[in-house]
Automatic annotation (TrEMBL):
Protein name: Inactive carboxypeptidase-like protein X2
Native source organism of the sequence: Ilyodon furcidens
InterPro entries, per database record: Peptidase_M14, Peptidase_M14_domain
Family, per entry: Belongs to the peptidase M14 family.
Name of one Pfam family that matches: CarboxypepD_reg
Annotated Peptidase M14 domain residues: 1-147
Superkingdom classification of source: Eukaryota
Length: 264
């Protein structure tokens, strides 16, 4: 792994990023993960993440506000007309790429990342840069605003202290995120009602309903979780230097009690 790649990985592990985008050239399209096909040897295959609907919205928020991406009258960059697909595409269904930034961010951090191909010319001339900026300025602003969509909150213990590395799960979506150092979290979601569960090692899990609206602004959804019974027992035993009681395992045969007839 290259040094700059290691540095970037360390940076992403340190900072709790929520939304990311990497800018590229040579096309006019926004791609979203997964970027690698599941089937070996297949170069193009629709490979969605559990957050497919969220990624599609994020991609569309950029493409639809770009000056050219969704313009049906623009010229095609090369051979594929991505304007027919609203200027967005699943990365693996375009061409498979192992170890992409988008896939790493989604699988190993809390960050949802996409790739923006912002122009047909991969190496535009200096004189063309002002126009390229105008083509993408509004898209960049709208895309950044999407970081405020979904739910956010803090996971605390009964004493009000934030719990780091707690897991936030959304029912029906097989992708969890984790809380930051102070117990705070941010979870991108499309509008709707969700059952969200917070859990942490040594604590009892808590589930609640969180509703996401259409207006920009993440819904506050905090959790307070207490120590589990098993953890409290272990804590007490460690405090008083007690050893667990080990009872021999015995097999018991259950006997059905005889029925007694009551007379009158």
């Amino acid at each position: 792994v290259a040094l700059e790649t290691r540095a970037l990985i360390a940076w992403m592990e340190k900072m709790p990023f929520v939304l990311g985008g990497n800018l590229q050239g040579g096309e006019l399209v926004v791609t979203f993960p997964y970027d690698r096909t599941r089937s070996q040897g297949v170069t193009r295959e629709q490979t969605p993440t559990p957050d497919e609907h969220v990624f599609r919205w994020l991609a569309f928020s950029y493409a639809s506000t770009h000056r050219l991406m969704t313009d049906a009258n623009r010229r095609v960059c090369h051979t594929e007309d991505f304007a027919k697909e609203d200027g967005t595409i699943n990365g693996a269904s375009w061409h498979t790429a192992a170890g992409s930034m988008n896939d790493f961010s989604y699988l190993h951090t809390n960050c949802f990342e996409l790739s923006m191909y912002v122009g047909c010319d991969k190496f535009p001339h200096e004189s063309e840069l002002p126009e390229e900026w105008e083509n993408n300025r509004e898209s960049l602003l709208v895309f950044m605003e999407q970081v405020h969509r979904g739910i956010k909150g803090v996971v605390r213990d009964l004493q009000g202290r934030g719990i780091s590395n707690a897991t936030i799960s959304v029912e029906g979506i097989g992708h969890d995120i984790r809380t930051a150092a102070d117990g705070d979290y941010w979870r991108l979601l499309n509008p709707g009602e969700y059952r969200v569960t917070a859990r942490a090692e040594g604590y009892s899990l808590v589930t609640k309903k969180c509703e996401v609206g259409y207006a920009i602004g993440a819904t506050r959804c905090d959790f307070t979780i207490g120590r589990s019974n098993l953890f409290r027992i272990r804590e007490i035993m460690e405090k008083y230097n007690k050893q667990p009681i080990r009872l021999p395992v015995r097999q018991f045969q259950a006997h059905r009690p005889r029925e007694r007839r009551l007379g009158t």
